[in-house]
Structure formats: C-alpha cells, structure tokens
Amino acid sequence: MGTRAVELRGAGGTPVTATLELPPGRPAASAVLVSCFACLGASAGTARLCHALVSRGFAVLRLDFTAAPNADGTEGRLDTVPSVDAVVEAAAWLRERYPPARLLVGHSLGGTAAAAALPRLPEVAALALVNTPAGPEPLLERLEPAAREAKQGEVVLGPGRLRLTRGFLQDIDAANVARALGGFPGSVLALHAPEDRYVGLEHARRLLSAARRPASLLMLEGADHFLSREADAVFAADLLGPWAARWVTPVRERETPLPPGVVEVHEAGEGRFAQDIRVGTHRLRSDEPLRVGGDDTGPTPYGLLLAALGACTAMTLRMYAAQKGWPLEHVHVQLSHDKVHAKDCAECETKEGRVDQLKRSVKVSGPLTQEQRAKLLVMADRCPVHRTLESEVDVRTVLED
Known about the structure:
alpha/beta; Rossmann fold; GMP Synthetase, Chain A, domain 3; eight-stranded mixed β-sheet; three-stranded antiparallel β-sheet; 12 helices; 32% helix
C-alpha cells in the first residue's frame, strides 16, 4: 500500500490537503473518507478504517476537516475549511486517475458533508456514516453566542478545532441532508456510539429514516465520538470492511489469484514496518508492535510463523482423527517463540550461542482414550509445517530489476 499527499480545492478555491492510500496493484474501486478525527491528534480511527478498505482493494482518498493540537499542547494550524465542495472535488480527483469513488465514508460532520454531496456524485453506490449528525445543530450549539448568531465561526471538538462557514452550514442543513438521502438509491450504513457526548443516537435514526431504501444501524457500544480507543476503532473497521466489500466490487473479484504456493509481500507505505501480504485470493497485514517502532496493525512475522505451525498442527490432528473415526471434538493450540541459550537446550545439536525455541501446547477435547490422546500428540510433530521447520531449508533469493 502506498501513501501520498494530494492537493485539492474546496469552496471558493480554498486549498484542501488530502491523503491517498493505495492497495498493492491496480485498485478496482475507490472511496472518499471524510472525518473529524484529527481533533485528537493520533486517533486510531482513520488508520483502522482506511486499512479495512485498502486491504479489500480500495483506493482511499481521505481528508480531515479538523485541526489537531500541536505536540506541545498548543492549538494547531487550521488550514482546511469544511465544505461539501471538498468532498465532490475529492471524488472528481479519483475519477480522473482511478476507478470512480463508489463509496463515501464520513465521520462526524464529515459524514454530514458526504451525505449532502450525494446528489452531485451519481457514481456513489454506498454511504457509511460514523457518529454523524443529521444536520449542523450539534455544532451550532457549541459556537460562541455571537458566532451562533452569525452562523459561522470556530467550534471546539475535544482538544481540536473546526472552522464553520455560513455557506457550509447551509449546505448541510438537515432538510438538505434528508433530501439527499431520500434521493440516494444506494446502501447506507450508520455506525454510532450510544454514549457519544457530541452527537446523540437520535441523529443516526433521523439519517436512516430519511434514506430511500432500508438502511442499517450498528451500535459502537462503549466507544466515544472520535473512536479514540484502539479496540473501538478496530471494531468499527471490522464492521465497515465486509459491508463495503458487499456493496462495492472488491479487487479480489477482479484480479487473478496468485498460483498455489506463491505469496506476495509489499511495503504498506504507512508506518515503519507494516507489510501487505497477498496469498491466493486472501490479504493479510504484518507489522511490528509499538514498543519497537511499529504501528501494531497486524501480527509480527514470527507471529505469522507461529500461526502457520499452530494451524497446521490443528489441521493435521483433525484429519488424522477423522481417518481413524475418533471422537475428537475440538483442538486448541497455543504457541510461543523465544531465544534460549544453546547449552540449555538438551535436544539441540548447537551448544554455543542462542537458538530459537518454539513451545507448543496442544489441548484436545472429546471422549478420547489415553492411547488416542498420546497418538495425537505424536501426530502433532508430523504436521507438514513442523517437518519443514526441522528439515534443511534451501532459501534462494534473486534481485529483480
């Protein structure tokens, strides 16, 4: 996956900076993600939602309407002025270079702007809204009295800020948003946190009731407005990704699967270590944990190695028990990896330095005899991945042009 900045033009030609996220290979569909996540600075929301789409083959152009605070806690520079024009311009930019934007994803006021833009974007097939107000009312309430009277000014969201203009507030008027949704023939999904302190749950219900076709509401229990907790951001992404793939053609249906035994790994382009992995028709992500400079967006390479051994072990036991007609009900495998001193490894030929040690604990459930359990333990060492790890492996590397 690649990442780069994109310069757009919003209302009145105002510059808008967006970020483009690309999957490996040619994307089959595009999406525009409009959010107000930057209020919190390093929010997990943007990264998780983007990855949920990019991993399914979407090119994602994302723009944030808010200004994040500086590292020292001072107010950040507010360059972007929210506008429906910016959403339309983002879709137009994608249309000229990539497949048209078939999906709009909007968080907070970005979702309201995305909904208002629908009549100007006939190519859009699906709209996902995250903690989105049905109109500007929740933000107008947060303006200073004079600014509220003038219907323009800056509003504080968390530690960040958002600049509102009279024209933008008119564009996202509740009546305009309702009309836009009423004329939209595509699918609508609302993800909403019932405990959202900025936008009440009634806004999600108003948005869905205005939709032309049946729409879905999924609750983000325990989440805040910004999806600031990692677990909440992951949950929202896990809901968004499959839904988007259901309503917008994903890349996996268009590209040729890799041949059996072939794996492709590409640098993800985000963070220091993240890698996008393609296996057949499947896509995976590998990364390093935060403590070593990664973003923890996927298991580590050693985590994938242990997963391969564990999966192979469970499959081997299942296949062997089925052949024997044994009443094996469930297999659970737990693994760990460590570096140990060679002199402490009684079964290792190497006696100097440190060696890799993989520990595997196998639990089998069912009315099995002790003899059957003992045989299954023996079979665990005969799974193909186990044999590969213990055999002499010839790795040949070539450098391609």
